[in-house]
Amino acid sequence: MGWALNSHDEEADFEAGVAAAVDPQRYLQGDVSGLAVTGLHSWWNHLSCDGCGHSFRRGERVKVSVTPRAAYHADLPGECPRPAGGEASVELLDTDVAEFADGVETAWPAGHTVLRLAPGDWRVARPPAPLQRTRCLVCAHTLRVGERVVVCPCSPQRPECAATVHRDPAAGLTCWETWRPNGVVGACPITMARRAGVRP
């Protein structure tokens, strides 16, 4: 016979503990200001930062304001100004991480050209308002400098298509493998134009 909780109170306490472990900031709502970590149920999760325009991702530190209701990255390396000083933070990828990512790409090729987004790439540039930054076709997060991506092979240099998918396993971004596990793109996901000689 298995172990069982003896009372309703113990069961409720256990469930509350499990919920807190899964997402410790679930109940951080609009009435709390200050530093926080983006969680699954954070109201700002997946929204755009009011400072840099990048989407918030789980695990990122943010500065949350109640009045007015706003959220800013507390520290997004290479992109978002620090709320305190307003100066840009450090480079996104250090040498060790970049070398590891190169090794992953060598051992586990994507089947298409993988690009590392440079600071001057049009995919990471912030467009004028009200336009938003370019986002990954799969996870819908904004593309950031230093991330590795696969660009739609139908016309990779045409901004009209702009279909870009994260392919950066070293950074935990396996959107390409989620979307196209076999690595084959038979038609452009934006224009629906079929690629000659390619079977989906």
Question: Any overview of this molecule?
Answer:
The chain is α+β, with helices and mostly antiparallel strands and 200 residues long. The chain has two domains: 8-73, no CATH class; 95-179, no CATH class. 16% of the residues lie in helices and 12% in strands. The chain is built from three helices and six strands; from the N terminus they run αβββαβββα. It has helices spanning 8-22, 95-107, 175-179, and strands at residues 34-37, 61-65, 70-73, 114-116, 148-151, 164-166. The strands form two sheets. It has a three-stranded antiparallel sheet, with no helix packed on it. Strands 4-5-6 form a three-stranded antiparallel sheet, with no helix packed on it. Strand 2 and strand 3 (70-73) form a beta hairpin. The longest helix is centred in the N-terminal third of the chain and has 15 residues, at 8-22. The radius of gyration is 21 Å and the shape is globular. The N and C termini lie far apart (52 Å). Mean pLDDT is 77; it is low at 84-92.
